[in-house]
Amino acid sequence: MPTAVDLRAFSDDSPPEGESAYLVPPSRAPIAVVPYDDAWPRLFARVATGIRDVLGPRALRVEHVGSTSVPGLSAKPIIDIDLTVADPGDETRYVPVLTGSGWVHTVREPWWHGHRMLKFVEPRVNLHVFGPDSPEPWRHIILRDHLRGDAADRDRYAAIKLESAVAATTAHETVDEYNARKQRVLREIIGRALDAAGVPT
Length: 201
What we know:
The protein has six helices and five strands; from the N terminus they run ααββαβββααα. By secondary structure, it is α+β, with helices and mostly antiparallel strands.
């Protein structure tokens, strides 16, 4: 498990010079943030069952994270899932079986917590793959649980998401640029979530 220092450190996910994280070029399509949909937890449960079915014990943990995991929070209508595997760098252990089930491998970021991402088209799902020692899945869970219980921060996050989506769409930006627009507010909220969870400073 990551340390408190790991959980409180926000590392840069920029690629080394001359490298790209993208196996599939990012889209500049309009970014929609829509009201919470009660169907999202059911979609997650269905997809998570499929992931566990094809990976078996290699799926150490499958978690619904991101805004679609927070009742009442507006979100992009894309289910975010964190998949923990023993070694995300050993793609032969999980990527072929997932792509054989319809997933598309879109991102490889070994320099950022070993992160890989695969996408599913219908339903729309982003599957984030990390190892057991990565702080990211833990931060995602702490943030999710905080937003489920803190209406004020939930409203703050909804407001910056909507504002950022409008601005990013107007400027024909990618999701990464949309994320950058809301990063400052999100990190402030994560700081409060870590405080509430008792993570030492």
